[in-house]
Structure formats: C-alpha cells, structure tokens
UniProtKB/TrEMBL annotation:
TM spans (from-to): none
The species this protein was found in: Streptomyces bauhiniae
Protein name in the entry: XRE family transcriptional regulator
Lineage, top ranks: Bacteria, Bacillati, Actinomycetota, Actinomycetes, Kitasatosporales
Alphabetized Gene3D superfamilies for the sequence: 3.30.450.180, lambda repressor-like DNA-binding domains (1.10.260.40)
SMART domains the record matches: HTH_XRE
PROSITE patterns according to UniProt: HTH_CROC1
The HTH cro/C1-type domain, residue ranges: 32-83
Alphabetized GO MF terms: DNA binding
Length: 294
C-alpha cells in the first residue's frame, strides 16, 4: 500500500534525502531502487517495527506517543522546524496552534507608519502566503514597482516565478526561489484548510515547472536573516543584509528590511540609488488600499 496522505508525503521526502552512509548504515548488497533510506532502515534506526513505521507513513496508527515521534524525528535527522511540522501532521497537539489568516489581510496603521518612517531603508511587509501587503519608496526603488502591479500579482512567489525580470534582479535566483517555496510549504497546514494558499500553489505549479519541482522537494523554511545579492541597472550588483521581523497579533505577517555593511561598496551604491529617487511614498499606493485603522 502506498502512502498518499500529507504525513506519508512528508516522511517519504525526509527519508529520501538521507544518504545511508551518513546515518551509519553499511553499503547495501542489493541495489537500491530509490534514493535515500528504505522504510525498514528508518524503522530500525527509530527502534520500531517495520509494520508500525509503514502504518505511520500511511496514517493508520492512531495516537502516536511522544517517545515514538522523537525516535522517528531523530532517525530522520529532522531539524526543529521539521519536527514541529511532523507533529502538526500527526496532530499530537505539540505544535504551535495556527489559524487561517483572512484572504485579504489588513495592515495596521502603525505598521504603515513604521514602514514609511524607516525610508531610505527598504522595507516590505508580507503575509504568510507571500502577499505583498505594504512597502515603502525604497523597496519600490530597490526591487520593483509594486504599486504598478495588479493586486493579484502582488505576491513574492508569483513575482519570482512568473516575472522573468526577477532572474536578473537576483543573480542567485535559485537561492531566493527555493526558500520562498519552502516557506510556503512550512506555512501550509493540511489540518487548517486554506483555499487561497491552495489556489496559489495550484496556479504556480501549473505555470512553473521549477515551482512544482521545489514544491515536490517538501523542503521547509522560516524567514530569518541573511545576505542577498541584488542587481539594479543603475548601480550594478549589491550585497545586502536582510532581517525578518515577525509581527505580533497579525496572523503571520512579517517585515523584511534591507541594509548594507557600513563602509562597503554596496552601502555606497544603495545610498546613491536611494538619493536618485527621494520622493515621498503615497500610503494609498503602497498598500493597494486607502489607509484605515485595523
């Protein structure tokens, strides 16, 4: 019996990525038909029967003890985000509760004010489905004219996979695109139906073979901090630091900012770029809606 549910899909993807040698298994005398670990190898590493692990992948074991889950997590070398995801799929109650955000999230007045106040630091507010909810002038200069986009297109995932210009904007496009899909994967919870997310994933899977491939990898990612190379035709390539701030009481919204190392060539390029377009941002344009208290 093949496992067809979300739990089986996730567990198969995790054991498929593991090299048997990396977990201390000797070379197999029988050629492997697929990459990664076999079910019986995961079962042995976790200290459970092969039948029990097979039924776990098939979602047929009912309640799973914390001890067994921990053993499976260790056997599959899951990181903290993956462990949380597994427990959400199993439904143990150990994962953080998550509710479905509204299809059109609102933006608090204080957040809009903050985003405009930090200019010329580029700042971009997104929802958990990668919706672009608000941005400042600097973000439009650095990345794209989000105000000129149709509201449905104001989504980082749509922008990355459907706009060819992003492959020039990001010299390391794959290093940006893959984590974006992984963040969508991480947010998706099969126990909390989200029609807007499923529609987005479906449309992008059909429109982009690369998106479909990344989605099938079942990689998980949570936005944090790091560095990105961004190209702008006016100044060339800049290496910028990004920071992600998760917004409390916002149904999963997060703020991304971009800065350059002090004294670096990228800082000079960013300063020059921002000085060339120093006009104020229109709050109505930068949120796609008239300002209102939320």
């Amino acid at each position: 019996m093949n496992s067809t549910g979300p739990l089986g899909e996730f567990l198969r993807s995790r054991r498929a990525r593991l090299d048997p040698a990396s977990v201390g298994l000797p070379p197999s005398p029988v050629p492997r038909r697929a990459r990664g670990l076999r079910r019986e190898e995961v079962a042995a590493l976790a200290g459970v029967s092969v039948d029990y692990y097979a039924r776990l992948e098939q979602g047929r074991v009912g309640n799973v003890s914390d001890q067994v889950l921990s053993a499976v997590e260790d056997a599959l070398r899951l990181d903290p985000l993956e462990r949380e995801h597994l427990r959400a799929l199993v439904g143990t109650g150990s994962a953080k509760p998550r509710r479905r955000p509204p299809a059109r999230p609102g933006v608090r007045l204080g957040l809009r004010t903050l985003i405009n106040a930090v200019d010329p630091v580029p700042a971009l507010l997104q929802g958990p489905r990668m919706e672009i909810l608000a941005w400042n002038r600097a973000a439009s200069v650095l990345l794209a004219d989000f105000g000129a986009m149709a509201p449905v297109d104001r989504n980082i995932a749509r922008w990355l996979f459907l706009d060819p210009a992003t492959r020039t904007r990001y010299p390391d496009w794959e290093e940006i695109a893959a984590p974006t899909v992984a963040a969508l994967r991480s947010y998706r919870n099969p126990r909390v139906p989200d029609e807007a997310l499923e529609r987005l994933v479906g449309e992008l899977s059909v429109a982009s073979g690369e998106f479909a491939r990344y989605w099938a990898d079942y990689r998980l990612f949570e936005h944090g901090h790091g560095r990105k190379r961004i190209f702008h035709p006016a100044v060339g390539v800049m290496t910028l630091n990004y920071e992600t701030l998760h917004i409390a009481d916002s149904d999963g919204q997060f703020l991304s900012t971009y800065t350059a190392d002090v004294g670096s060539p990228s800082e000079e390029k960013l300063r020059i770029l921002m000085s060339w377009d120093a006009g104020p941002v229109d709050p109505e344009t930068a949120t796609g809606e008239r300002p209102r208290q939320v």
